[in-house]
Amino acid sequence: MGKPGEILLDPERVRRIRSKLLCWYEKNKRDLPWRRDRDPYKIWVSEVMLQQTRVDTVIPYYERFLKRFPTPGDLASASEEEVIKAWEGLGYYSRARNLHAAVREVVSSYGGKVPEDREAMSRLKGVGPYTAGAVLSIAYNRRVPAVDGNVMRVFSRLFTIEEDITRTAVRRRMEALATELIPEDRPGDFNQALMELGALVCVPSSPSCDRCPLVRECQAHEQGRAKDFPVKRKGKAPVPVCVVFGWIVDDEGRVLFERRPKKGLLAGLWGLPTAEMERDDPPREKLKRYCAEKGFPIEPGSVLGHVEHVFSHRRWQAVVVGGRALATDQPLPTGWRWAGEEERRSLALPKVYEKALSVIEFPLQLTMCDL
User: What pLDDT score was predicted for residue 164?
Assistant: First the structure.
């Protein structure tokens, strides 16, 4: 049974899987804030936040975000800067921008009501098959699959699926398989039960098969191969990149910030002036050249510290260099601004720049690039 498309689900096996899984879920589901009502907006926010982020990390952000933006109308009327600030620290900021744009569309086109139609939901910015399925099944009790990484891992083991789960065709066949399994009366609970099983029991490296309600249905366990699944190609390691951050101040103690480009890493967010450099580049000279190229000459100071931060595809190894503007009355480059201490607190800064600010206050001795 190598391909999910070839799996034959007889009615009795479907009945057993549904019954056992839902019974287990009723007894073992976690008390999570987004499970306390079926508000589609709240469920949507939680699902976006949970993408690539642990549940324990999300909970306080979710609660603060909903307190600040309790309805779609509240979120739609907020500025992007306010939304990004409320998201600050969660990372993957494109999620916040897409959610903001999509909720504005819901308010303008659907009167603030999250659409119940799968096609309409899927047309919203940033809403893929999983998010649409999760919101529609949990909030509206629609029989729509919600296949995330947890579900794919469960299915891979349950049905010994030998194919690479990163392939789109495999995901689609798993969605078809999920559709066969979802009961008519409790689609939302069933989808959440699958996800919960993957999160709590059918975990990646050490599955707790002795606690699994589906252990007698699991082909991988029967074959003693649970740890062989899922089949997944290895991702590339993040590429190390050396960068220099500028902590540039004026005579009033204000700090210089620049907005990142609209596309690419940390797109559109505020940060310290940042320049990539070769490993053997002197960071002070690199910062000086970078600012000069922007038409804003500075006098570089000393190295204030080092920061390392891992993104999904890059690992920044940053040197923080102090500096002072040569002429405080010179015009700032487009997208640059001065910010005093109060104003700095209102800026939505990515975690990597928060680390840099901490290093400046509490210097750390870390070995990064060879300088």
Answer: 95
What does DSSP assign to residue 214?
A: T
* Strand-strand pairing, 314-325 and 239-249: parallel
Residue 291 corresponds to which tokens in the numbers above? 């600012």
Residue pointed to by tokens 């940053």: 318
Active site residue 80: no
Closest alpha carbon to 189 in 230, 257, 143: 143
Query: In 3D, which of 80, 35, 81, 38 has the Cα closest to residue 62?
Result: 35
- Mean pLDDT per block of 10 residues along the chain (371 residues) reads 59 96 98 96 98 95 98 97 92 93 98 96 96 98 96 97 94 94 97 98 95 97 95 89 96 92 90 95 96 94 95 94 86 92 86 90 43 37
Q: Model pTM?
A: 0.83
CA distance 246 to 284: 9
Task: Please report, for residues 272, 299, 335, 340, the alpha-carbon distance to residue 327 in angstroms, rounded to integers and kept in the order given.
Answer: 19, 10, 18, 18
The Cα 33–Cα 46 span in angstroms is 9
Question: CA–CA separation, 229 vs 150, rounded Å?
Answer: 12
Q: Crossing angle for the helix pair 11-28 and 187-200, nearest 10 degrees?
A: 70
Beta strands 314-325; 336-339: pairing state: unpaired
Beta-carbon count within 10 A of 161 CB: 26
Question: What are 227's two structure tokens?
Answer: 């740890």
Note the pLDDT of residue 183. 97
Q: Among residues 12, 26, 47, 341, which one is catalytic?
A: 47
